Amino acid sequence: MSTAVVVGSGPNGLAAAITLAAEGVDVTVLEAADTLGGGTRSSELTLPGLIHDECSAAHPLAVDTAFSRRFDLGAHGLTWRWPEVQYTHPLDDGAGAAAYRSVEETAAGLGRDGRRWQAVFGPLAARFDDITADFLRPMLHVPEHPIALTRFGALSALPAALLTRLFAGEEARALFAGVAAHAFRPFSAPMSSAIGVALGTAAHRYGWPVAEGGSAAISRAMISLAEASGVRFETGVEVRSLAQLGKQDVVMLDVAPAAAVRIAGGEMPGRIARALSRYRHGPGTFKVDFAIEGGVPWTHEPSRRAGTVHVGGSAREIAAAERAVARGRMPERPFVLVCQQYLADPSRSRGDVHPLYAYAHVPAGHAGDVSEAIERQIERFAPGFRERILARHVRSVPGMEAHNANYVGGDVVTGANSARQLVFRPRAALDPYATGIPGVYLCSAATPPGAGAHGMCGYNAAGSALRAVRPSASVTHEALA
């Protein structure tokens, strides 16, 4: 029997372990932390009984993938819950915009920009299953659906500033700017629309669901499935070198690229080690979790029903804040992402006391306290918010990296979404998961398709490993799907 060790138990490490075990590989997962799950952990951060997500919150790209279609996590306890409104963008004086599952309902709320919103997102949503079949894989492959992918790619290639200007009114501009800001990129940069186009389309096709009971329910279901397949887990084990792992047929590294180079030591070919060492990380996040009584009193009424609220003001304000962060300057009014998961999943609350998730985009490695700026931004669009706060839990940028070593400098998406790294991550290669060391593969969110609890980085990397270990088995992406 072939053997494998997976280093790291985030959703990608777990997906890799499950995929290998399903093919008869004997798998052990090693985790440096005391708890499994990586970015899909949840806990009572503020008050007893309130369930807070520690990193990932909403999961628009995890609902329907090659991994989720092959492995039934629902049978192991995972249940998705959807908010009434997928995401919103409040503006001053109670104005704002809202994104619903329906493209038509969203367009109806955007006035004169409704037809343009439909023209952008309607065709993409209708073909998004085909599009994701291509973009949730490495970019260097023959596309299965070239026409759909070409339309998606043409919009994704635009700078967010240009795509934002397709809309005439501030509501539609802000609605797109908020989702585009998930890229952690200046809006003037090429391909800075890509993440916004993907997540905006996903909202209409799949919604932005949350996992019932917290994001930890995702990792619990994956662990349950893995254990049923014979996978073993060890926590509190920090892997410093490949020699520590003994002789294995496959090693999967759910770690950042620089950490992979360190673990490999001198075994990795120099050109690959240099390429991975040059991998760029993006800006950081500063996170505050609140226990609030009665919900957030947003003046924009749809925001009171939204799973995610993008807080930052006008599209111009958000662009300025993202530009400052990219240049290493802390903006006075940062972009803040607020998640109200309890609206879709009331099990996270206790009575009328609710968990609220908020983080601000900040410069990489920022050492300052941003909690006051976060509260001020929320209070701006929800007067009286501060009066409802019962408790807080703060995780600074250094604290974020200490919590998860993959979040270098507080970078929770494990890599800058530059045009080059969106296309060639973590390096330009036909097999981006290979490290140049036989049997050793990188499977973290630094590999295609990037950040998210979809597990597709680990699933794809495991497919690469299986094709190398068992060439006679003819394991292909289509077979794994």
Automatic annotation (TrEMBL):
Pfam families to which the protein is assigned, alphabetical: NAD_binding_8 (PF13450)
Segment forming the signal sequence: none
Residues in coiled coil: none
PANTHER family: DEHYDROGENASE-RELATED, PHYTOENE DEHYDROGENASE
Name of this chain's protein: NAD(P)/FAD-dependent oxidoreductase
Species, as recorded: Solirubrobacter ginsenosidimutans
